[in-house]
Amino acid sequence: MTELTELMKKHVSVRSFTGEVIPEEDMTEILKAGQAASSWKNFQSYSIIKVRSQETKQAIYDLQQQPWILSCDTFLLMVGDLKRAELATKLHAEQFHADGAENLLISSVDTALVGQNILLAAESMGYGGVMIGLVRQSSKELSELLHLPDYTYPIFGIALGVPKRHNPAKPRLPLEAVVFEERYQEQDAQVIHDFDAVQTEYAGARQTELWSERIAQQFGAPESPVTAEHLKQQKLL
Ligand SMILES: Cc1cc2nc3c(=O)[nH]c(=O)nc-3n(C[C@H](O)[C@H](O)[C@H](O)COP(=O)(O)O)c2cc1C
């Protein structure tokens, strides 16, 4: 065990903030720690829109009404970005092919790794926050609001601030349900029932539906076409 692994294991999303400001030098440190994440061939296929003005936070909140977008100190929009790749490619090649599943994975993974580094760095300094992927429901409007050009797309936001309250850490699946020795092991529904019970005990009276019911809501119907439509518009699909 190290201080770092202890910090990582204590992670909990924070959705309630005191309103105190994160000093600019702390924010710079957090962002630099984010930048240090591994990156596909070091292409660094992401950009971050740092939003601190209440006016812009309000405009984002109007698109995706999660109260922590308004109450956080800083909202970071994590953007998958192949726009710089266009600039580089055009220096050396006639054509630029940004679209496709592999390229989407490259930029999405790079962006996610930076985002996770940012959240952990913030937590290590006593701040807290939550990732906000539901902003993708308004990808088009958000991209217009924040002037995202072709070859870029919003992946998730991170609301950061000084925590007012920490919920107890959420349970995770047992390690052996997600880590397999040497080869993949198919599981039966018992693993789902068992974790439903764990999650139900954790959530207590706050629980409105089973963990597995939430999964079924997501995957029991075709996904909303909004994200794919926007990715096509941005020339990424
Ligand atoms: C990519 C991503 C998007 C997320 N989007 C949202 C969101 O839109 N709203 C929200 O309240 N939490 C969001 N979360 C937070 C998750 O709900 C949270 O991480 C999960 O329930 C586990 O809880 P914990 O982070 O407290 O351990 C998101 C997390 C990830 C990784």
UniProtKB/TrEMBL annotation:
Family named by the database record: Belongs to the flavin oxidoreductase frp family.
Pfam families assigned: Nitroreductase
Name by which UniProt lists this protein: Nitroreductase
Presence of keyword Iron-sulfur: no
Annotated coiled-coil segments of the chain: none
Tree of life domain: Bacteria
Keywords associated with the record: Flavoprotein, FMN, NADP, Oxidoreductase
Listed SUPFAM superfamilies: FMN-dependent nitroreductase-like
Domain Nitroreductase: 9-161
